[in-house]
Each structure stands twice: as structure tokens, then as C-alpha cells.
């Protein structure tokens, strides 16, 4: 278990670094953020590896597809109040949340366990649907404050806490409070998707990270200064890393799991459209 | 002074000078960010976080006598870069000098390139030791003479004056980099130079400021797919068509500009397979190359990653010919170093004049001399305590664990705030410049 605690700690530290990088002088340093995102990804993989023993290609495949789908869904609406989301308190529930793409959550968990994939997806979907309309769901997280923190960070104002929680629940049934990594990851995935549509060049603020570095994106989303830039940053979902893990191209359509994913995507789409328009314009 | 021959361990290093404030409270603007000797070694330039360049000149009066040590004294100080603000992106552009590179001297004046994150400037440093005196129409202080008092005609003549060193910006190369510039390198043709940022490398002509050619672009069409960035780039010292650039993944690519206009396709790829037994969360970070330097001969190149220095033979791509551990005892501390951001420190490295010894910095104000010919290494320290004139530097040892011997320092006692990132070696003599946070130490070979 120790390694999980360690991985969790590293992830928290990484998220903090990503957030701090946005307020430091001279702009976001691409190189450092890329490295931090790599660490974040590694830590996440280790953290999740215990849940699902044996990485399944299928899982990765699904995850890749999820991300692709999310990319097409465009950005999530960015909600100001990034600082709140970052604060390591349980404020994440208070943040207005947009139902994050449940696929993301599914994805993060699904990566590790293909056998539970369907059950996970269906669970998420069910929970997603129940909570998706509530943008300010005050879901009481079962996870510890730490989880909340990571969750908040990962999602900024965009991720619905309910999603996170839902996401976390199946994954952490046996793990107790260590929900963070999946949530964080799912949040980041969503943000990344959102940003992906914004192909505008904001190099300084862009953090190149593998797909698992959604947290970075979220951290960047916290910046109230430049929403468009944030969207760009988050949109870049660093699928490069994802591609490395799974051999499937991201453009593939989903397999049987796409059903639930699709529904989730649709829900996301409702919320993302206004922002996606803004991003495209930017 | 002795030549640059001889191994690093045959040479005994003595303290010569230290520049900078003694104050322990370091002003951020005084933090030294780059150190570079010029091609003759007579001038030593430093850049700091405040955007200033300070040039020291070697006192050559006593060079003929081997007993005397030549000293470096301040020659010129000027503000190279100012902080700027990018209004479009709402970003502040730091004035910190990232790199200084000297141009080979062509006439009486000296030229250097200095760069911050976004803009490169060509500075001309010239001496003035004469001034015209005896103007007919104005006084010496510049006031106009009363025309009624002028009854004769006189022509001004040049008279000696106190030496004045002037630095003037001759070229400003701006608006070519979207990302942070990390390297500049002057080509051996003395006409062009390259500048590299995280994703692109541009080729400039020294005379032309409104245009640059992009010769490397690793920006993916979809930024989400980014997996590596450019960390350093350098031209080959003799072949003007060849340059290398290193990446955050630990690879070095050599490119030939004759092959195509856009050198995205490398002609050689230098990469060493990763040792799977050393895999950890931070493997990717510590494999990121922070500096790459060609040897003076042009046959080898040296790369610095977080824990080691590697010497590559340009004819062998699959592995380095030599690998030296700089501070292997830090491998077990990577997590703490990640937390305090030290793992992101970008150490530089340098060759001595005849490529027999390489030097790089470490923590606790330690720096390492790695002798390639004798396969020996030594750790030395730049500290105020060892700063008595001509005091010989004592080798330092770090105890990784277990019983700490006398005179050893344990890993946990190392001061990670005292880091030596920038070092430079005189091109001909055994004189080295070592930059601690805000002080510049100059050490010389002991002469008996």
C-alpha cells in the first residue's frame, strides 16, 4: 500500500507544481511542465495499477477512444474561480461543475481493468445521468479531503464532483479514500478534450503532457486571466503519451463500450458547445 | 601560465578570485545565469537574472612571468535586457540572460550575443582611450563658446584619456520565438548563428534582424501529442553545416543543413537505451539533457543529464563512449529533489582546452572535474572558507551512506540551495570560472 500513498503524494505535488507554474514570472515553462506531467502520468499508472491487475489492451483501447470522443466534444465550459478549485479544501463540491465527460472517468479506471470495464462504464453512466444536469451538485464525496483536493485541482470548475465521486466509487471500492487519481485523471481528460479544439498557439501557457496530465490542464484552467489560453492548454490532451501506451490510433471509434460513452458525451456536449465556439473563435 | 595540458588530477587548483557580494542574502537579480570565456580567454562574461552583463578582462601585464597570476577585473558592465510584457498573451518576459556567446574577434572591438527568453541581442564592446580636444566653437564641457571671443581657428586633436569601455547594441533579433530560448550558438562561418527554443531552432544571419530561417520544428500538429522538447543546441566547431540538438528524452540529434532546408529529419540520432533496473517515477526527468557541448576537436560531444555526464563519439550513435557519474548518491533522493524542484536544475558542462578534462557543477557548491585520459575524478568546492589567496582546493568527498569518514560530508548535509549550474574553462590555460548563486569564483592551476 505504501507505494500507493507515495504515488498519491507525488501526484498531489505534481498538480501543485503545475498550478504554481502558471503564476510564476516569465510564463509557463513548457519543458518543466512536460516533465511534471510525465511524473504525474507515471504516478497515476502506479496508483491505478493496484486496482486493476494486468493492464489490458482493450482497456487502453477504450481509453483512447474515450479521449478521442472527448476531443470531439470540445472544451468544457470554463468556470471562473480556479483558486477555489485548487484549494485543498472540500470546496470542490461547491464549485459549479459541468458534468465532466464520464468517459474520462471511465477511461482512467478502465485503463487498468478491462474485465470491469463494462461494469464501470455502466455504473458511471448511471451516475452520470443522474447527476449530469446538476451543475452545482453538492455531492458529498466519500473520499477523503485529499481526494477532494486532487479532484478540485483536476477539474477546476469543470468537473462535476459527482462525476468524480462516481468515478471514484467503483474504482476505490476496496481502496477507501484513495479516489484521487482516477478523479484527477478523469478531470484532466475532460479538460484536455476541451482544449484540444483550441488549436490556437499559446505556447507559453500550453503544457505539453501526456494524456494523463489532465491535471495540468486543470491547473491551467484555474487561471482566470486568459480563458482562451486555458482552453487551449486543456484541450491538448497529450495524447502522445496515450498513444504510446496503446497502439490504437485515437481516431478509432469506440467498441461496444461506446454506447455508454456516447450518452455521456452527449451530455457533455450540451455544456461544451458554448465554450467550444469561443475556443474555435480564439 | 601552464598550458591546458595535463589531467585534472595532476593539476592542483588554487583559489584566485571571487566576484560578487559577500552578503548571504542574495538579491534575485544578482543570481548568475551564464558564464562564458571569449575565444582568447582574455575576456570573461557573466549574465545574471537582472538582465545585466558583466565582462571581466584578464590582466595581461604580468603574464610573462610564470610566478605571477593574472587576475580578472571588471571591464564592462551593461544592462542587456529589460523585463518586457507581452500584451497579447498577458505574459511577462523575464530579463534573465539565458546565454552569452562571444563572436570570434575580427577587429579591435569585441562582439557577443546575449539572449533572454525571447530576444537575442548583438553587443559591441569597444574601447575608447582617446578623445578629441580643442574644438573651436565649444568648450571642453560642451558649452558653446561665445562667438565674439573666437578670434582664431583651431582644429581639435585626439588626446589620451582614461580608458572607457562602451557597450552598444548593434542588432536586436526579436519576435522569432514563441517558446523560451534555451540556446544560441555561433556558426564557424562567422556569419550565421542559431537560436533554439523548446520546439524550434532558427538560423539567423548576424547582419539581418528582420528575418530568420526555421531549421528545426518539432512542434506536433496536435500539441496534445507533444512528448519531448528541445533542451540545447550547438553548431559543430568546424563544420558549418552541422549542428546538434538535445531533447528532454535524453536523445541527441545531429543535423546536416545541406540535406534540406528544414532539418526535421536528423542525420544521426544518439541515444542510449535506458537501464530498466533504474526505472522510477523520475526516470524521464533525470534523463532529460540539460547541456550539450562539442569538444574543441569536433570529434566528440558531451551531454549532461541530471546525474551523469556522457561523452559521445560522433561516429557512434548507439551509446556514449564514456559515462561519468556526477552525484550518483542523489539517485535515492530523487523524490525529495522533485519536491523541492532541484530535479529540474539545468547543469552545464564544459571541456578544457585540449579536451582531456571535463567539468560540471553539483550541489553544496561542489563542482566535479572528470579526467578522461586518466579516468579519475575529483570533487572540489567553491566556498568563502577556501578563499584565501592561492589556497589549494582540497578534494571533497560525499558519503552516500553508512559510516561517515572524517572530512566526508553526508548526503543529508548537502545544501541544495547552493548549486553550481554554470562553469567555464579558459580555452588555452588552466583557469576556470565557477558560478555559485551570486558569486563568480576564479580558480587557477597551482604554479610552484
UniProtKB/TrEMBL annotation, chain B:
Entry keywords, A to Z: Repeat, WD repeat
GO annotation, cellular component aspect: protein phosphatase type 2A complex
GO MF, any single term: protein phosphatase regulator activity
InterPro entries registered for this protein in UniProt: PP2A_PR55, PP2A_PR55_CS, WD40/YVTN_repeat-like_dom_sf, WD40_repeat_dom_sf, WD40_rpt
BP GO annotations: blood vessel lumenization
Superkingdom in the source lineage: Eukaryota
Quaternary data: PP2A consists of a common heterodimeric core enzyme, composed of a 36 kDa catalytic subunit (subunit C) and a 65 kDa constant regulatory subunit (PR65 or subunit A), that associates with a variety of regulatory subunits.
Similarity-based family: Belongs to the phosphatase 2A regulatory subunit B family.
Protein's recorded name: Serine/threonine-protein phosphatase 2A 55 kDa regulatory subunit B
Record organism: Astyanax mexicanus
Amino acid at each position: 500500500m505504501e507505494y500507493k500513498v507515495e504515488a498519491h503524494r507525488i501526484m498531489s505535488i505534481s498538480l501543485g507544481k503545475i498550478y504554481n507554474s502558471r503564476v510564476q514570472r516569465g510564463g509557463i515553462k513548457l519543458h518543466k511542465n512536460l516533465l511534471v506531467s510525465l511524473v504525474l502520468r507515471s504516478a497515476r499508472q502506479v496508483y491505478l495499477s493496484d486496482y486493476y491487475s494486468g493492464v489490458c489492451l482493450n482497456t487502453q483501447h477504450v481509453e483512447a477512444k474515450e479521449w478521442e470522443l472527448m476531443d470531439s466534444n470540445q472544451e468544457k465550459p470554463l468556470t471562473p474561480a480556479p483558486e477555489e478549485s485548487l484549494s485543498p479544501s472540500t470546496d470542490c463540491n461547491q464549485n459549479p461543475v459541468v458534468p465532466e465527460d464520464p468517459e474520462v472517468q471511465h477511461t482512467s479506471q478502465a485503463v487498468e481493468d478491462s474485465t470491469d470495464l463494462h461494469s464501470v462504464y455502466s455504473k458511471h453512466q448511471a451516475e452520470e445521468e443522474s447527476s449530469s444536469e446538476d451543475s452545482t451538485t453538492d455531492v458529498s464525496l466519500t473520499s477523503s479531503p485529499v481526494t477532494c483536493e486532487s479532484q478540485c485541482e483536476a477539474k477546476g470548475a469543470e468537473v462535476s464532483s459527482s462525476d468524480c465521486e462516481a468515478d471514484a466509487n467503483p474504482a476505490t471500492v476496496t481502496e477507501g479514500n484513495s479516489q484521487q487519481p482516477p478523479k484527477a485523471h478523469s478531470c484532466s481528460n475532460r479538460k484536455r478534450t476541451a482544449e484540444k479544439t483550441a488549436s490556437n498557439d499559446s505556447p507559453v501557457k500550453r503544457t505539453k503532457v501526456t494524456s494523463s496530465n489532465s491535471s495540468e490542464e486543470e491547473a491551467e484552467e484555474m487561471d482566470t486571466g486568459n480563458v482562451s489560453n486555458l482552453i487551449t492548454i486543456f484541450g491538448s490532451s497529450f495524447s502522445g503519451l496515450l498513444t504510446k501506451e496503446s497502439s490504437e490510433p485515437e481516431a478509432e471509434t469506440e467498441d461496444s463500450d461506446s454506447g455508454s460513452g456516447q450518452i455521456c458525451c452527449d451530455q457533455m456536449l450540451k455544456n461544451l458547445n458554448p465554450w467550444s465556439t469561443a475556443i474555435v473563435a480564439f | 601560465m601552464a598550458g591546458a595540458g595535463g589531467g585534472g588530477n595532476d593539476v592542483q587548483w588554487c583559489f584566485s578570485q571571487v566576484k560578487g557580494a559577500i552578503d548571504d542574502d542574495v538579491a534575485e537579480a544578482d543570481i548568475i545565469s551564464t558564464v562564458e570565456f571569449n575565444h582568447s580567454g582574455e575576456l570573461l562574461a557573466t549574465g545574471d537574472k537582472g538582465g545585466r552583463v558583466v565582462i571581466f578582462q584578464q590582466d595581461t601585464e604580468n603574464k610573462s612571468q610564470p610566478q605571477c597570476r593574472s587576475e580578472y577585473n571588471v571591464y564592462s558592465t551593461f544592462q542587456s535586457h529589460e523585463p518586457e510584457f507581452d500584451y497579447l498573451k498577458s505574459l511577462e518576459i523575464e530579463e534573465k540572460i539565458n546565454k552569452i556567446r562571444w563572436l570570434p574577434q575580427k577587429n579591435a572591438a569585441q562582439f557577443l550575443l546575449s539572449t533572454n527568453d525571447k530576444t537575442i541581442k548583438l553587443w559591441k564592446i569597444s574601447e575608447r582611450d582617446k578623445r578629441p580636444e580643442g574644438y573651436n566653437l565649444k568648450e571642453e564641457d560642451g558649452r558653446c563658446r561665445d562667438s565674439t571671443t573666437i578670434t582664431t581657428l583651431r582644429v581639435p586633436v585626439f588626446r589620451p584619456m582614461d580608458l572607457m569601455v562602451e557597450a552598444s547594441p548593434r542588432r536586436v533579433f526579436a519576435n522569432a520565438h514563441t517558446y523560451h530560448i534555451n540556446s544560441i550558438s555561433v556558426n564557424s562561418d562567422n556569419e550565421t548563428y542559431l537560436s533554439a527554443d523548446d520546439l524550434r531552432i532558427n538560423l539567423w544571419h548576424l547582419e539581418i534582424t528582420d528575418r530568420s530561417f526555421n531549421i528545426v520544428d518539432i512542434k506536433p500538429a496536435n500539441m496534445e501529442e507533444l512528448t519531448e522538447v528541445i533542451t540545447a543546441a550547438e553548431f559543430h566547431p568546424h563544420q558549418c553545416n552541422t549542428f546538434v540538438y538535445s531533447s528532454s528524452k535524453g536523445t541527441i540529434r545531429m543535423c546536416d543543413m545541406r540535406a534540406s532546408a528544414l532539418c526535421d529529419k536528423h542525420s544521426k540520432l544518439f541515444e542510449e537505451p535506458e537501464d530498466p533496473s533504474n526505472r522510477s517515477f523520475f526516470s524521464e526527468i533525470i534523463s532529460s539533457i540539460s547541456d550539450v557541448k562539442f569538444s574543441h576537436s569536433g570529434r566528440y560531444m558531451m551531454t549532461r543529464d541530471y546525474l551523469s555526464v556522457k561523452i559521445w563519439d560522433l561516429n557512434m550513435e548507439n551509446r556514449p563512449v564514456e559515462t561519468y557519474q556526477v552525484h550518483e548518491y542523489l539517485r535515492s533522493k530523487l523524490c525529495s529533489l522533485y519536491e523541492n524542484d532541484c530535479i529540474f536544475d539545468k547543469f552545464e558542462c564544459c571541456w578544457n582546452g585540449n579536451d582531456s578534462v571535463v567539468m560540471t557543477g553539483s550541489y553544496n557548491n561542489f563542482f566535479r572535474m572528470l579526467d578522461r585520459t586518466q579516468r579519475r575524478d575529483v570533487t572540489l568546492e567553491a566556498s568563502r572558507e577556501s578563499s584565501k589567496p592561492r589556497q589549494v582546493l582540497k578534494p571533497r568527498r560525499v558519503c552516500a551512506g553508512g559510516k561517515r569518514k572524517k572530512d566526508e560530508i553526508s548526503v543529508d548535509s548537502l545544501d541544495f540551495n547552493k548549486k553550481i549550474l554554470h562553469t567555464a574553462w579558459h580555452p588555452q590555460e588552466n583557469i576556470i570560472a565557477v558560478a555559485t548563486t551570486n558569486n563568480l569564483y576564479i580558480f587557477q592551476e597551482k604554479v610552484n
